[in-house]
Design brief:
A hairpin with a 2-residue loop joins strand 2 and strand 3. The chain is built from 3 helices and 7 strands. The radius of gyration is 14 Å and the shape is globular. The protein has one domain: Gcn5-related N-acetyltransferase (GNAT) (Aminopeptidase, 3-Layer(aba) Sandwich), CATH 3.40.630.30. The protein has a 7-stranded mixed β-sheet, with helices on both faces. It is 23% helix and 37% strand. The protein starts with a strand and ends with a strand. The protein is α+β, with helices and mostly antiparallel strands. It binds coenzyme A. Coenzyme A binds next to helix 1, strand 4, helix 2, strand 5 and helix 3.
Length: 146
């Protein structure tokens, strides 16, 4: 049975780069706060292959100030494995971790327009105006109340 594992940043980086920033150098996939004590990284793997990754970082949510918000970044499923439920598994693992191990109230993200459907299915609310992130295209903000 597959399970979501909490791992170090260097474990999630290769898939994060391959899926989300393939046209940029590998360094573009290193987040400055990757190794901060309250950051965390998650993945699911099958037969030794990492299929989906996601990371969370302590970062306030301007649209709805709360005591503690975490930001979801680097949510990525291996291209050939999209639509098989691995994204759901990993994001549910993140939510479970935040509920059990932290007092986080909001999980938020800047979601790619192409991923709105996924986040909405997972219970996120997409809010505000669309904005462009250089090299990465149009986004909107999404949040999930824990
Ligand atoms: C977004 C992403 C992480 C979802 O992961 P996944 O492993 O495909 O997710 P799942 O298979 O668990 O999909 C869960 C549900 O969301 C739906 N879904 C997934 N991606 C979707 C999308 N882009 N638009 C609409 N619905 C989507 C699936 O159809 C599925 O619905 P179902 O349960 O009715 O079948 C994955 O598509 C991906 O890596 N995309 C490219 C990178 C990206 O855009 N990442 C997000 C950056 S903000």
């Amino acid at each position: 049975m597959l399970k979501v594992e909490k791992v170090s940043s260097h474990v999630v980086r290769p898939l994060r780069h391959k899926v989300l920033r393939p046209n940029l150098p590998l360094e573009a996939s290193i987040m400055p706060t990757d190794d901060q004590h309250d950051s965390a990284h998650f993945m699911v793997k099958k037969s030794g292959n990492i299929l989906c990754v996601a990371s969370i970082y302590y970062e306030s949510f301007e649209a709805m100030p709360v005591k503690r918000a975490m930001r979801l970044r680097g949510m990525a499923t291996e291209a050939a494995e999209i639509g098989k439920g691995y994204g759901t598994m990993v994001l549910n693992g993140v939510i479970q971790y935040l509920k059990m191990e932290t007092d986080t109230e909001i999980l938020w993200c800047n979601a790619r327009v192409t991923a709105f459907g996924f986040y909405e299915k997972m219970g996120f609310t997409i809010v505000g105006k669309e904005f462009a992130i250089p090299n990465l295209g149009p986004h909107k903000t999404g949040y999930f109340k824990l």
